[in-house]
Amino acid sequence: MSIHINAKKGDVAETILLPGDPLRAKWIAETYFENPVCFNEVRGMLGFTGTYNGKKISAMGTGMGVPSISIYAHELITEFGVKNLIRVGSAGSYQANVKLRDIVLAMAASSTSGVNELRFGGADFAPTANFELFQKAVDVAKSKNISIKAGNVMTSDEFYADEFESYKKWSQFGVLCVEMETAGLYTVAAKHKVNALSILTISDSLVTGEKTSSKERETTFDEMIKIALELA
Ligand SMILES: O=P(O)(O)O[C@H]1O[C@H](CO)[C@@H](O)[C@H]1O
Ligand SMILES: O=c1cc[nH]c(=O)[nH]1
Q: Model pTM?
């Protein structure tokens, strides 16, 4: 048992799917896992382990933002031996050609979070996806005829930015979309020499103003989950 996860060693699989929303973790486990068992309820951050096609796999919420996912990733790796951390999250599009419900693989994560500036004394660290997980996700998507986009994403510390237009600078430099955890996840994984990948589904567009509902965000991003499940 760790400070934030009320589980025993062995309760968590080596591969875990990590949505921000704990109810999405419950939905993933109940929809796709065989024999799901809940291993964590501390702070309502639900975590489940079951099997998928006979392979042990887990899903757990991370909460929102770099500090929250960094706590859970740290404990999952150091206390429970997790080796493959796959974020399955929603994101807002920064580009006209990145449309609602498109899937984006985060090759790297730019960030407005101050965590790495602090950690590296003002120098830049480039948080990147694990190459093997990334390559496998591309292959799985191809085999399932699911189209994907891949590139740099923005991990923001703000959901409600004071200057809405500030996203355009990142957009000009090719950043595909915005979410709030990937840079933290990739950094913690790099520190502990384990593997991480973020698979994101576009839930809204800063370019067009279109949005999906919170119910849809909780339950309908199944193509992204179908890719993630094959990475165990
Ligand atoms: O859908 P999730 O995984 O929570 O991800 C996105 O949604 C939340 C904001 O609504 C942030 O956590 C952001 O990263
Ligand atoms: O962090 C997020 C997630 C979805 N959409 C946004 O605009 N921001």
A: 0.97
